[in-house]
Amino acid sequence: QVQLVESGGGLVQAGGSLRLSCAASGIIFTLNRMGWYRQVDGKGRELVARFTNDGTPNYYADSVKGRFTISRDNAKKMIYLQMNSLKPEDTAVYYCNLRQYWGRGTQVTVSS
Asked: What is the distance in angstroms between the CA of the first residue and the CA of the last residue of the chain?
């Protein structure tokens, strides 16, 4: 069984920054397939960023390229999402994902 717990969300003004964290526990052999999604009420979950496991650069949605950075600490089984230059349209619940497992999400609200 795998558990994912997100933290670090909050309210920030446009142009500000937040750093999301996801703690993974359970039987996990690699963080390579982990990523971040986000969801706005009434819409489907959108892939924001993900590690690749084939040596290619990490994946980023076009809307966040150059502003968000995904990173990890393998020893701590943690992944992070550094979000800079935040925009009101980044407002969403952000979820950590590993295969079929999801965290409960953390709310990010960006005010204009």
From this structure: 40
